[in-house]
Records
---
Amino acid sequence: QWANVVRWEMRTRLFLRTTEFLWQEGHTAHATAEEARAETMKMLEVYREFAEGTMAMPVAAGEKPANERFPGAVSTYSIEAMMQDGKALQAGTSHYLGTHFAEAQNIRFQNEAGDLAYCHTTSWGVSTRLIGGLIMTHGDDDGLRLPPAVAPWQIVIVPMLRGKPEDGALLEYCEAQAKRLKEKSAFGESLRVLVDKKAEKSAEKRWNWVRRGAPLIAEIGGRDMAAGTITFLRRDALRTGDKVVSQNKPAEEFVGLATGLLAEIQANLFREAKARMDANIRT
């Protein structure tokens, strides 16, 4: 289930430890310890695969020491991510509870011999703490950097509107590119593309999307339209030193490359974070 939880916290930290939060939790009951342990490890792997494959957030997955075990559990497992300040973040947990809770709450079943036996139970969960982990793993001094697999808008097109009659033709050009891009797919879904039509200066709109972490930001003006090109930024490789790096490609080529670029950005964000985590692990 997904549920809101309220708990007392002495010191709250945005996303990480708040009085109220949204989490996903599961509880299962099994006839044998082997079945319950298999379920515990299966869910740990579900969380690991989601963190690394979808969030591009590398984690260490394994068993917690006895002093960090969930009270009443026989074994507690977790995925641990490393934030940019060098601190570990427990990002998800999976517990094998043995029959401890079944004995306390009289959770029994009729076994094959016809006798009543206590269930072996599990519990596991992740929460909105993952959002905090995502921000702290990938963010930089310019704002968010979102992995394309989870970015609300994977490609944002910013028309350089000037409040003149030719704006209509430019918007049509941008909408045409957006339509072609939406016919492409990445991560099992059609591309999520937005044309930002707000009547603001294009530079302000561009930096607004940089701060929000859109993976690809295309800024299209009259010259691009006349040349049939698209100028764009990659959020994962925004700068060389202090200089912002933009690329210009024929529109047809950009549309063809979009899916591959998003996959490359996803892999690059994971690679950066993995190198940082590995450099800080000592045995």
---
Amino acid sequence: GGFGGATGSRSSRRRQKPQRRGSDLRITVKLTLKEIMTGVDKTLKIPTWVKCDHCNGTGAKDGTAFVTCPTCHGSGTVSQVVQGIFGPQEAVGVCPQCEGDGKVISEPCSYCNGEGIQKKDELVSFHIPAGVTDGMTLTIRGKGNAPRRGGVNGDLLVVIQEIKDAELIRDGNDVIYNLMLDVPTAALGGAVEVPPITGRARLNIPAGTQPGKVLRLRGKGLPEYNRSTVGDELINVMVYIPESLTDKEKEAFENMRENPNMKPSESTKQRLFSKLKHIFE
């Protein structure tokens, strides 16, 4: 037959009822490079299923309107005889009517309709460590939804979304900045400002700096998640060639055109090509 009422003592074979667990919550948190660099504490208001205040999450009116389960007579378990390889055997399982509680609701809570949970905007605080990456999911234990009629909360799953920076490009733990120099600064050298992740930094450009040269600011990148490694900031040098010139500027460039120093020698070409060939590899 099917599951029937329990008879006799169950103390010797009573099984521990499975603990109910609430569902997980998933949210997306957008972070700037600065927040990823330092780590950040977040406090967010999240719609969450929490235990009902009026019945203390039990689903019963005032948390007390229960009667002994008529199926298992309070034991929380039921048995049935099954045919095993050694003949008929008794199998003990969780009572399907009371789900192992041993009692059932006689009058449901009117505020939650006997569910034991209610929807509420909860303030949830958590810490996001430094060095997280776009698409990474962090698990905050016990900050998810409450289960129906008691048990343990689910988890809060925090999905990281990196906000693209207006000036810096992330490459693993390094960040890249495209520095556009004017021709005089590239030729003569000089101090320029570049944007690190936090603050500003001044960088000395050597005279004769060529397009494609990469300068490195050590330790100005991002930390690696859960490690002490820190990346660098790479400055990718570009040189702006004027797209329109005044007559006076044209005359200046024409005068320079005839200057042998304006044209690279064969040895200079080979030296520069060997430095820049990694771009095409």
